[in-house]
């Protein structure tokens, strides 16, 4: 069955290292999103993308970089990881080409990242 | 910018009883959608129900219904006949037409008591 997959499932890294979280979807959805989930904060939007080569900042973009050279992939890079970036990261996609006001998000299984 | 507020960090309900999870929102966008997601302890995000800002009737999906009060900017989730499997985190979210961003609240932890 088609879906949205994230890798790795778990990642441990050290402060200052660069780490990339991968997200791949097979539906050719236009919109893709990255969220981080922390206790007490719910899910916070890091970056989103409306289409290939179009990305924009969300609520908490500092310290993160994204790219979207192909519709199906939306990697998230932590350029120099910090302990405050320890979190669970979710990738999501939406097929609505005209906007996300009336189309649900489909989520990946999440990546649990620990920065030591 | 859009904002979602869930004021109940934790809720308890007796099995087979109904429960209401509160959600209020703030947006200046005239066109938006309201969503509820369930996150069980396994961690996946499960879509439950959707309400469009122009929908006249409250949305229902099986045991889930959304009590949409547009003037009060509230979109409460009602779960009828609670089951043990309903124990989970529940997130309210808003998707706005302008900006195409999708925001979540901080969530409510629901525990169903046998």
Explain the overall architecture.
The complex is a heterodimer of chains A (116) and B (114). With 116 residues, chain A is mostly beta strands. Chain A is built from no helices and eleven strands. Chain A has strands at 4-7, 10-13, 19-25, 31-38, 42-51, 54-57, 64-66, 76-78, 87-94, 106-107, 111-115. In chain A, the strands form two sheets. In chain A, strands 2, 4, 5, 6, 9, 10 and 11 form a seven-stranded mixed sheet that branches. The radius of gyration of chain A is 13 Å and the shape is globular. The termini of chain A are far apart. By secondary structure, chain B is mostly beta strands. Helix content of chain B is 0%, strand content 54%. Chain B contains no helices and twelve strands. Chain B has strands at residues 3-5, 10-14, 19-21, 24-26, 32-39, 46-52, 60-61, 64-69, 74-79, 88-96, 102-104, 108-113. In chain B, the strands form three sheets. In chain B, strands 2, 5, 6, 10, 11 and 12 form a six-stranded mixed sheet that branches. The radius of gyration of chain B is 14 Å and the shape is globular. The N and C termini of chain B lie far apart (41 Å). The model of chain B has no long low-confidence stretch (mean pLDDT 93).
Terminal Cα separation of chain A, in Å?
A: 36 Å
Strand content of chain A: over 45%
Number of helices of chain B: 0
As a percent range, the share of helical residues of chain B equals: under 10%
Distance between the termini of chain B: 41 Å
- Number of strand segments of chain A: 11
Secondary structure: number of strands of chain B: 12
SSE order of chain B, one letter for each helix or strand: EEEEEEEEEEEE
Low-confidence stretches of chain A: none
Main interface by residue count: A-B, 28 and 26 residues
Rg of chain B, alpha carbons: 14 Å
Overall average pLDDT of chain A: 92
- Could you state the oligomeric state of the chains shown? heterodimer
Q: How many separate helices of chain A?
A: 0
Q: Share of helix among residues of chain A?
A: under 10%
Strand residue content of chain B: over 45%
Biggest sheet record of chain B = 6 strands, mixed
Radius of gyration of chain A: 13 Å
